[in-house]
C-alpha cells in the first residue's frame, strides 16, 4: 500500500485527469453508433453478449451469403427476436424474405467489420503503415503487432516470421521519412528524442507450431530460432522489440526466450518483454528478472499490462484442477500493477518501463511514482491499445507528452479473436473503462487505492464463503485429480527421474497374487519396451487354469465377509489406494511410458484417471449404499438397496493399463464383489502395481487377485467358471462378443445368470463443419487421431470434412502432421512413438496398404530407425463410407479423411459403422450443434473439442451398438451393473398400531 | 350443532361432573405405579411407545425365559438404555449377568400381566364370573365379551362359539343368585328394574374364519349360523346380545347379520348392535337402521361408540388407495357421536340406546339430550370399558344411577391385542382421557361443543394445505391405482355383470395386429376356460415366422420417428392407455377370470398393476428424459441422457397376463423402443386387450405389434432376429436361459449387442419365527401359497417353521386350509380354482406324488367334479432342504413345510435354492428382522406380511441368481435397462470467452 500522502497525490492527479476529459467518451461506448448499441445490449443481456461474441468469432468464416444468412438467423433469431438496433438497417430496407436477408447480411457485415477496424490499424502492411503515419501526425508513437492465426505448422510459423521481416523491411524504408516525435530527449531522429521510431511486438508461440511446456527446451530453441531472425532485423533498424506475453502455459518459456535472446546481444538496449500483473507469479518473476539483469549487467525493458486472458486462464485451470494462476479479485491485479510499477521504476537504471493500462488510477499512480522516484522521462512511457479509450490516450499525451499505441494489423480472421478479447475487456463487469464511461461510477471509487479495495474484497469473501458442495458422509465432493502441469519445472523434472528410477527395477520376476499371497509359477513371460523390444522390463509368472481356479476359489471364499462389510468401509479401501497412488504418480506413469509407450502426459493422465475411478466409485457406493425409502403409504416401510453378485472376473486391456483396470476392479470391489484380475499380457507390470496399491491399502485377502496369463490358456476358463458371476471386460469386439456368448451359457453348478459389462471398439469420426474454427479443429483432430499412436478406443479414425472447407482443412492438417516428431516417448520431443507390439504393427501396416488402394495418401510420416514397433503416422484422403478403412477399427495412427457434401451427409456417414463409441463435431452453427446432439448417436459426443480424454464424472465413458453394452464407466449408473437391487418391505402395523413414518423409518 | 342453551347446559353439567371427581385419577395415569410410569414415558417418547406397545404385543408368545430375556434386550436395550423405571426392580436386585436378566424378566412379566389384568376381567370363565359378581356388589352392571384370537379355521370358530355357550350356561346358573341392581324400573329380577342381568357382546367375524366382503352372502350366512346358536341361548336366559362392530371391512356384513337375526325373532327385545361414530358412513347407516326398524316393526338397540381401530382404518385405506372411511379430525367423531345420540334418543320408542364413551363432554351431552327429549331411563344407559377411567364410571353411577362396564375376559394371547388398543386409545395425542387426566387441559376446552371445534379445525386445515408432493411436469405424483373395494356393493355387483358381458363375446376370432393393421392368418388356435375347458373363449390367429418378421420390420420402420418423439409425448400415450384401462377395469378383470382362472380380487389387482405400470413408467420417463448436467468445471457443458435401443421383443407369461405384458411393453415403448409382443398362448385374449388399449390411445403404427403364436414356431425366430435389440421376457427358468444364450450369439447384420431383461422363477420361502404372530402368519402364508392356485413367481412354496412353534403353526395352518373352498373363481365363494392347463395339472400332480414320498402329507384338499384342470391344495410336512419339492419350482398349489432348529438354520435353508426371488419372515424379534434384512437374500423380502402382491413403485419386483437378471420391474432403475446412456460434451469456450454457467446450460 502506498503512503497516504502518495495516495492523496495519485487521487488528486486522477481527479484532474477526469476533469480534463470530462464529457468525452470512447467511441466504443457511443450509443449513437451501432457498435455502442451492441456494447450496451451486451452489457445488459448476458445471453445476447454470448451470441454476439460468438457471432463475431465465426464471422470471418461466413464466406458465402447463405452461410451468413443462416448464422445470423441461428444466432439472433428472426427480426422479431433480434434487438431492434440490429435489424434497423434491414427494416428500413423493408426486410422481407431473401431480399431482407441480403440487406441484413450487408448491415451486419459492415458493422462487424467496422468494429474490427476500430481496433486494427490495417489489414495489410501497406494500409497499416499508412495509418501509423497518420497516428504519428497526431503525436502518437506506435508498437506494431502482426495478427496471426494459431500457428499450426512450420510453414505457418515461417510465413508469420516472414511477415514480420517484410514489415520491418517496409518500416526501414518508411522511417527514413519520419521525424522523431517531439520530446525531452536529445536525439531528433528518435521519438521524444530518445525512443526508437520502429517498435514491434512479437508473440513467441506464433513462431513454433508445437510450442508446449512438456517439451520445454525444444520449444524454447525452436522459438528462439525464428525470434533471433526478427531481432537481428530490428537491431539493424535500431528498433525496439518487445516479446509479448501470452497465456500462463507459455510464460516461463517466454521468459526463457527473452533471457537467452538478451544474452546473445547484451549490449543492444531495445529489447523488452511484457509481464502481466494479473499473474500471481509476476512479483516473483519480476524480482527474478531484475536480479538477473543486474547480475548479467544487461539492460531490460518491461511492458507491464494487466492481462487479457482472464477467462481462459481461470477456465483452463479449473478444468484441469490447477490453482488458478491469476488473481480472482480485480483490485488485486490493479494493486499488483502499482506494486510492480514501483519496483520497476525503483530499478529504472537497469530496466526501462512501459506502462500498459487504460485505467486512470493506474496511470496516475505510475505518474506519481515516477515523480516520487525521480525517474527520467526516457526510462518510462505509457502505452494504450489502438482503438480503445481515446479520451485516456489524449489525456496522457497532454500530461506526459508521450504515448505509444499498441497497433495490431492483419487480416480479419485472426483479427476477430483479438476483437473478442477487446470486447470482453470492455464489457466485463469489472472493467475500468465500462465503469468510467458506460456506467459513470463515482470518481472517488474509481480512484481508490486498489490495495485497499482488494483487502476489503478479500475480507468480504472470507465473511461469505461460497456455499461449498459436499460429498457423502463428510468427504469433500468428488473432483478430478489435477492434470500434470508442465509449466511446473518439478513436474518436468519428475519424468526423467522416475524413468531412471523404475529402470533400476528392470528384469525383476513378478509373481501372481492370490488370496493375499504371492504365487510363483514355472512359466515366465517377458514384458518389453515396445520402442525398444530388446529392453526386457520384467519376467511375469503366468497363471494357468489351476491358478485361475485358485483365484476364483479365493475370491469366492472372501466374498461373504466382503459383501457384509459396510459400504463406507469398502469405500475407504479405495480412498486409501488413491492416496497411495498419488504418492507414486510419476513412477506409475514411468512404467507406462516404458511398458506400453505412452507419452508423458498420456501416461500421467492414465494414472489420474485411475485415481479418479477410486475416488468417484468410493463416493458413488456411499450414495448407493444408503437404502432408499420407496412409497408413501403408512404402515409399511419399503427399502430399496443393492447387493453385490459374487466373483467378478476383470479382464483388462493394455491401452489404459492402469486406469481401465482400476476402474473395473474398483467398481467390482467397492460394490462388494471379489475380483479375479487378468491384466493384458502387454502390461502386466502396470497391472502388478494395481495389485500393489490394493495390497498396501490392506484390502482383505482374496478380495483382489492378480492372475496374469495367456488368454488362450485361461481366458475362456475364467469366463466359463460357474463361480464367476460377473465379467468386466474392455477390449476388442471379437473378444467381447466371445465373452458375451460364452457367459450366457449356464454351466453346471452355476449360481447366477452371469452379467457381462463390456466395452469394445470404436470407429470414431470427427465432423468438420464448413464454419469450423480450424485453429482449434486441426490440432484437436491430430491429437485425437495420433495421441498414443491412435491406440485408444476413443481415438479419431475418420475425419468427415464438409466440401466447402475440405481443402483448407486438409492442407493445414497435413502441414501440422508433418511437424510431429516420432520416437521413444521417454523423450518429450516425440508426440508419437511405437505401437503396442509386433502384431499390432503388422496389422496396422496392412490397413495402411489397404487404405492406399482405397484412397489417396495425404501423409505418411517418417519412421525412426531402430527395432521399435513403429508404423508411420498416416493420413489417407478420398475415403468413402464403403471403404474398409472407413468401417473397421484399426487401432493405430491411421486417419481416414472423407469429404461430405453437407452436414446431413456427414452425420449419416459418421453414424454408419457398427460401432457407436465417440464422435466429435467442430462447428459454430448452433443448429448444426443441436442436430449433432440429437442425431450423432455415439456414446460420447464432443462438440468443438477433441474426442479422447473423457474424464470420470464429467464425461461418463462408453458406447452402444457394437461398441459395448451401454455401460458408462465413471458415470452415475456404472456401479448399478455390478449389483442386484433388493427390496425389503416391512409391515409396521401390529395389532392395529402403526408407528409414525419417522419412527418406523429407522433401521 | 346444538342450540346455545342446550350447549350451555351440557357445559354446566360437565363442569359439575369434573368438580365431582376432582383430584381422582384413573389408575392408568397413576405415576406412582409401574403402568402409570410406562404410560408417561410413552406419551413423552414416541420411540419408546412403539417399542413398549410392540413388546406388549409379542409378550404372550415369549414362553421361555430365553425368549423373554432376548426380547427385552432387543426391544429396550440394556439397563443403561432403558427408562429407569423399567430396570428399577432389577437394579434393586443388583442386576448383573444372567441373574439380573432373570430378575428383569420377572419384573417385566408381572408388570405387563398387571397391565393386562387392568383391562381384563378374568382369564377363565370362572374367574370372570367371580369378578363380575364383585362388580355387581359395587353397583356395576356388565356386558361380557370373550377375547379371541383371530379365528383361522372352522374349528376355532366352533370353539369360540362354544366358549360363549359355556359362558351363557355358567351365567344361567349364576344369575339365579343375582339380585337385580337397584333402579327405577319395576322388575326386581332385572337390573335397574328393567335390564337383563346377562348381557354379552359378540364379534361376528370370530364366528367364521373366511369372513370376507368379496364373498358377502357366504360370509353373512356362515356368521349367522353360529350367531343364531348364541342368540337362542341368550334368549333362553332372557339376556341381551349385542353384535359388536369391528373394522370397516366387515361393517355392512355385520349390519346384515344383525338385520337377519333381528327378523328371525322379531318379538324378542334384547338384541343390539354397535355403531362407531368415527365411521363416515354412520349417519347414513343409523338412518337406515331406524327406518328399517320402523318399517319392520322390530325393536332394536344401538350401542354407540367412538371406534377403536382408527390407526388400522386409516393405514389400510391409504395403503389401498381408498378414501379413509373414518373421520380424520377427532372433534368430527365427537360431534358425530352427539348428533347420532340425538337421533337415537329422538327415536327411543323403537331404539334402545347404549352410550359407550369415557368423554365427560359426550356423557354430559347425552344426559342433557335425554332430559330435553324426555327419554325414559329404561330406554338408555351408559357403558364404559372395564379398567378405564374409573373416576368417570363413578361419576356416571352417581349421576345416572346406572352404568354398565364392558368386560372382556379370556387368555393373555388375545388379551394383548385388546391391551394395545386400550393403551393406544389412552396415549393418543387427541385422547380425552389423556387430556383430562394426564395433561390437565383447561376444562372449558375439554367441554367445548365438538361441532364448533371440528369446524374450526376444518378451516385451519384448509388454511394450511398439506405440502403436496408433485409429479413431473405438472402431473400429480404417482400413486397406485386403488384396489378393488368389496365393501362397495357396486364393486361386488360389477363382477357378475362383467362376466356376463364378456361371455357374449365368446367364439370371436382374434387377428394379429401389425403396423397398425389387423392381420388374419389361416391357422387358428382356441383359447379356453381352464375351469371348464369345453368353454371356448375365442379363436386366435397364429403368427408364424413370416408374420413375426413383418412385425419386426414394422417396428424397425417405426423406430426412428418414435425414438425422436419427445419423452413427454411418449409418456402421454401411456397415460392415455391407463385412462382407457380404468374405464374397462371390470371387463379386463372378467377376461382373466375366464381365460386363466383368477379369483375376482386377483384379476382386478392384475389390471390395477397394469395401470400402475403405465402411470409409473410415464413419469419415470419424464424424469429420465431430462438430460442431466454433469460436473462443475467452467467452459464445458456435459449432458448425460438416454437413448432407446430399437426393436424390443416382449415375450410375456400367462400368470399376470395383463400386468406383466403391460409393464414390459410400456417400459419399452415409453423409452422409445418399438415392440413386437408375443402374449402367452394361454392368455391371448387378455393380450389382445392390451393391443386394444394402445390402439385406442392412438399409438403410432408399428410401435406396438401383437403377434400371438406358438413359441416352438416363432419364439427362437424372434430372439435370433438381427433387428431385435432388446428382449424382455418373463417366464420359466428354462426358457429364460435359452433366450439369454441365443440372444448372446451375434447374427449377421445385427446392429446391437442384444440385451435381455429376464424375470424367471422362484422357490420362495416364508420363515415362521418362534415368536411369530400366528394370527397373521397363518392366513398370510396360505394366501401367499395358494392365491391364484400358487401360480405366481412370487408365491410361497416353502414355509420354514422354527421348531418351538412348528406344531402350533402347522395345526392352525392345516385347519385353515381345510376351510378353503375350491371351484371356478367366477363364484367368489371359491378362493382356489383350476390351474392353467392340462400340462400344468399333470406336472403339479407329479410333484405332489414326489412330495408325498419325500415328506408327510399334511393336507390334500378336495377337488371339485368337472373337467377343469384341478389339482388339490396340498401341504406336505417334514421336508428337508435336499428334497426335490424344496428345490424345484412347482408353480402350483403345493406348500412344503420345513422344521428348522433355529433362525439361522431357517435363513440358511431359505437361501438354499438357486432362485432368489421373494421371501418372507414372520417375527417379532427386532434382531431377527434385522438379520433377515441383511441375510435373507432375495429380490423381494417381506417382513410380517404376505410375499405376493408387490406394488409398482413401493415394492419394485424381481430377483437375482437364477430368478432373473437383477432388473426390478416397477422400480427406479427399470427403464435404464431399455436404454443406452449418452454423454454430450460441449466446449463452450471460444476465443478465450466462456459464457457463465447459467447461460451456457441452455440447450
Concise summary:
The structure is a homodimer of 1003-residue chains. By secondary structure, the first copy, chain A, is of the alpha/beta class.
Fold blueprint:
The structure is a homodimer of 1003-residue chains.
Chain A: H1 4-20, H2 34-44, H3 46-58, H4 65-76, H5 84-92, H6 97-119, H7 125-137, E1 141-146, H8 154-175, E2 199-202, H9 216-236, E3 240-243, H10 251-264, E4 271-276, H11 282-296, E5 300-305, H12 310-320, H13 330-346, E6 351-356, H14 360-372, E7 380-385, H15 390-400, E8 404-409, H16 412-427, H17 432-438, H18 443-446, H19 450-463, H20 489-503, E9 508-510, E10 512-514, E11 517-519, E12 524-529, E13 532-541, H21 545-564, H22 567-583, H23 585-595, H24 600-624, E14 628-630, E15 636-644, E16 647-651, H25 659-670, E17 674-678, H26 684-696, E18 704-706, H27 711-720, E19 724-730, H28 733-743, E20 755-759, E21 764-768, H29 774-786, E22 796-802, H30 803-819, H31 838-854, E23 856-860, E24 874-877, H32 884-887, E25 894-900, H33 903-910, E26 915-916, E27 918-922, H34 926-935, E28 940-943, E29 960-961, E30 979-987, H35 997-1000
Parallel strand pairs in A: 1-2, 1-8, 2-3, 3-4, 4-5, 5-6, 6-7, 7-8, 9-13, 16-17, 16-19, 17-18, 19-20, 21-22, 21-27, 22-25, 24-25, 27-28
Antiparallel strand pairs in A: 10-11, 12-13, 14-15, 15-30, 23-24, 26-29
Amino acid at each position: 500500500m502506498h503512503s497516504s500522502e502518495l495516495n492523496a497525490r495519485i487521487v488528486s492527479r486522477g481527479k484532474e485527469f477526469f476533469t480534463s476529459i470530462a464529457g468525452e467518451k470512447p467511441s466504443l461506448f457511443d450509443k449513437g453508433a451501432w457498435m455502442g448499441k451492441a456494447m450496451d445490449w451486451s452489457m445488459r443481456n448476458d445471453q445476447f453478449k454470448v451470441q454476439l461474441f460468438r457471432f463475431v468469432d465465426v464471422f470471418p468464416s461466413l464466406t458465402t451469403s447463405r452461410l451468413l444468412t443462416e448464422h445470423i438467423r441461428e444466432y439472433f433469431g428472426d427480426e422479431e427476436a433480434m434487438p431492434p438496433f440490429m435489424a434497423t438497417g434491414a427494416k428500413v430496407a423493408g426486410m422481407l424474405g431473401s431480399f431482407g436477408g441480403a440487406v441484413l447480411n450487408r448491415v451486419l457485415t459492415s458493422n462487424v467489420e467496422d468494429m474490427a477496424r476500430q481496433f486494427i490499424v490495417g489489414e495489410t502492411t501497406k494500409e497499416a503503415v499508412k495509418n501509423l503515419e497518420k497516428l504519428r501526425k497526431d503525436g502518437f508513437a506506435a508498437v506494431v503487432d502482426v495478427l496471426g492465426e494459431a500457428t499450426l505448422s512450420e510453414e505457418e510459423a515461417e510465413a508469420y516470421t516472414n511477415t514480420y521481416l517484410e514489415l520491418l523491411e517496409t518500416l526501414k524504408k518508411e522511417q527514413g521519412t519520419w521525424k522523431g516525435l517531439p520530446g525531452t530527449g536529445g536525439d531528433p531522429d528518435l521519438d521524444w528524442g530518445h525512443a526508437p521510431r520502429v517498435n514491434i511486438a512479437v508473440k513467441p508461440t506464433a513462431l513454433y507450431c508445437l510450442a508446449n511446456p512438456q517439451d520445454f527446451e525444444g520449444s524454447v530453441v525452436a522459438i528462439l530460432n525464428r525470434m533471433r531472425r526478427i531481432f537481428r532485423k530490428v537491431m539493424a533498424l535500431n528498433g525496439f522489440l518487445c516479446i509479448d506475453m501470452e497465456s500462463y502455459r507459455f510464460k516461463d518459456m517466454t521468459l526463457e526466450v527473452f533471457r537467452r535472446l538478451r544474452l546473445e546481444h547484451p549490449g543492444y538496449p531495445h529489447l523488452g518483454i511484457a509481464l502481466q500483473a494479473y499473474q500471481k507469479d509476476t512479483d516473483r518473476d519480476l524480482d527474478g528478472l531484475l536480479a538477473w539483469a543486474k547480475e548479467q549487467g544487461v539492460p531490460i525493458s518491461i511492458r507491464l499490462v494487466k492481462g487479457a486472458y482472464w477467462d481462459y486462464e481461470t477456465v483452463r485451470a479449473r478444468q484441469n484442477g490447477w490453482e488458478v494462476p491469476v488473481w480472482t479479485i480485480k483490485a488485486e491485479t490493479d494493486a499488483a500493477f502499482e506494486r510492480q510499477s514501483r519496483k520497476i521504476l525503483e530499478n529504472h537504471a537497469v530496466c526501462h518501463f512501459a506502462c500498459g493500462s487504460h485505467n486512470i488510477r493506474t496511470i496516475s499512480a505510475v505518474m506519481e511514482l515516477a515523480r516520487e522516484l525521480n525517474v527520467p522521462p526516457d526510462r518510462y512511457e505509457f502505452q494504450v491499445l489502438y482503438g480503445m479509450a481515446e479520451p485516456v490516450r489524449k489525456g496522457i499525451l497532454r500530461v506526459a507528452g508521450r504515448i505509444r499505441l499498441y497497433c495490431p494489423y492483419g487480416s480479419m480472421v485472426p483479427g476477430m479473436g483479438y476483437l473478442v478479447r477487446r470486447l470482453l475487456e470492455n464489457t466485463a463487469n469489472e472493467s475500468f473503462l465500462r465503469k468510467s464511461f458506460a456506467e459513470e461510477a463515482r470518481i472517488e471509487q474509481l480512484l481508490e487505492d486498489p490495495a485497499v479495495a482488494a483487502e476489503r474484497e478479500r475480507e468480504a469473501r472470507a465473511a461469505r464463503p461460497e456455499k461449498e458442495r459436499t460429498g457423502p458422509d463428510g468427504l469433500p465432493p468428488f473432483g478430478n485429480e489435477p492434470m500434470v502441469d508442465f509449466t511446473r519445472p518439478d513436474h518436468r523434472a519428475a519424468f526423467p527421474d522416475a524413468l531412471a528410477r523404475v529402470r533400476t527395477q528392470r528384469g525383476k520376476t513378478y509373481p501372481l497374487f492370490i488370496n493375499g499371497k504371492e504365487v510363483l509359477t514355472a512359466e515366465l513371460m517377458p514384458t518389453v519396451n515396445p520402442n525398444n523390444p530388446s529392453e526386457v522390463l520384467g519376467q511375469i509368472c503366468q497363471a494357468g487354469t489351476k491358478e485361475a481356479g485358485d483365484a476364483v476359489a479365493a475370491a469366492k471364499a472372501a466374498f461373504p465377509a466382503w459383501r457384509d462389510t459396510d459400504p463406507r468401509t469398502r469405500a475407504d479401501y479405495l480412498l486409501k489406494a488413491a492416496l497411495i497412488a498419488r504418492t507414486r504418480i510419476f513412477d506409475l506413469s514411468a512404467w507406462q511410458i516404458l511398458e506400453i509407450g505412452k507419452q508423458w502426459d498420456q501416461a500421467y493422465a492414465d494414472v489420474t484417471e485411475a485415481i479418479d475411478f477410486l475416488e468417484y466409485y468410493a463416493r458413488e457406493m456411499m450414495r448407493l449404499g444408503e437404502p432408499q425409502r420407496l412409497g408413501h403409504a403408512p404402515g409399511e416401510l419399503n427399502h430399496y438397496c443393492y447387493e453385490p453378485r459374487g466373483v467378478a472376473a476383470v479382464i483388462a486391456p493394455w491401452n489404459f493399463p492402469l486406469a481401465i483396470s482400476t476402474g473395473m476392479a474398483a467398481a467390482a470391489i467397492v460394490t462388494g464383489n471379489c475380483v479375479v484380475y487378468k491384466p493384458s499380457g502387454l502390461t502386466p507390470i502396470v497391472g502388478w502395481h494395481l495389485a500393489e496399491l490394493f495390497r498396501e491399502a490392506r484390502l482383505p485377502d482374496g478380495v483382489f487377485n492378480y492372475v496374469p496369463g495367456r488368454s488362450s490358456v485361461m481366458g475362456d476358463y475364467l469366463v466359463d467358471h460357474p463361480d464367476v458371476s460377473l465379467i468386466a471386460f474392455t477390449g476388442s469386439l471379437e473378444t467381447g462378443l466371445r465373452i458375451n456368448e460364452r457367459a450366457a451359457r449356464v454351466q453346471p453348478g452355476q449360481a447366477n445368470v452371469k452379467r457381462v459389462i463390456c466395452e469394445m471398439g470404436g470407429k470414431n469420426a470427427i465432423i468438420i463443419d464448413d464454419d469450423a474454427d480450424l485453429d482449434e479443429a486441426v490440432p484437436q483432430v491430430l491429437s485425437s487421431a495420433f495421441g498414443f499412436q491412435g491406440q485408444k478406443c476413443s481415438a479419431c479414425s475418420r475425419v468427415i470434412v464438409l466440401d466447402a472447407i475440405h481443402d483448407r482443412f486438409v492442407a493445414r492438417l497435413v502441414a501440422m502432421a508433418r511437424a510431429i516428431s516420432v520416437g521413444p516417448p521417454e523423450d518429450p520431443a516425440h508426440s508419437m512413438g511405437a505401437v503396442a507390439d509386433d502384431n499390432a504393427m503388422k496389422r496396422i501396416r496392412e490397413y495402411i496398404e489397404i487404405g492406399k488402394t482405397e484412397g489417396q495418401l495425404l501423409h505418411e510420416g517418417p519412421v525412426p530407425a531402430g527395432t521399435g514397433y513403429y508404423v508411420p503416422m498416416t493420413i489417407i484422403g478420398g475415403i468413402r463410407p464403403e471403404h474398409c478403412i472407413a468401417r473397421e477399427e484399426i487401432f493405430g495412427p491411421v486417419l481416414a479423411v472423407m469429404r461430405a457434401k453437407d452436414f446431413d451427409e456427414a452425420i449419416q456417414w459418421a453414424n454408419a459403422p457398427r460401432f457407436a463409441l465417440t464422435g466429435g463435431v467442430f462447428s459454430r452453427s448452433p443448429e448444426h450443434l443441436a442436430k449433432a446432439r440429437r442425431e450423432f448417436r455415439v456414446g460420447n459426443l464432443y462438440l468443438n473439442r477433441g474426442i479422447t480424454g473423457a474424464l470420470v464424472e464429467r464425461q461418463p465413458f462408453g458406447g452402444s451398438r457394437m461398441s459395448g453394452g451401454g455401460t458408462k464407466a465413471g458415470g452415475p449408473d456404472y456401479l448399478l451393473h455390478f449389483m442386484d437391487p433388493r427390496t425389503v418391505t416391512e409391515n409396521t402395523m401390529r395389532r392395529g398400531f402403526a408407528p409414525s413414518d419417522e419412527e418406523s423409518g429407522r433401521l
